[in-house]
Design goal:
The protein is mainly alpha-helical. It has 1 helix and no strands. The longest helix has 48 residues.
Length: 54
């Protein structure tokens, strides 16, 4: 019996796909959180600016 038979390769491929998706999803979540933070900051900035200019 070989170490790298079809079943073992399949398991390794599934694990690699899962890890790749997990890392990609983590990065996307972080990016979305930062974008939301920046949108909130800009919104507060514009609200303050509009109140000062009245």
């Amino acid at each position: 019996m070989e170490f790298l038979d079809n079943d073992t390769l399949l398991y390794i491929a599934v694990i690699i796909i899962f890890l790749a998706f997990f890392l990609w999803n983590k990065r996307q979540t972080k990016k979305n959180r930062e974008d939301q933070k920046n949108r909130n900051f800009r919104k507060r900035y514009h609200e303050k600016r509009n109140r000062r200019n009245r």
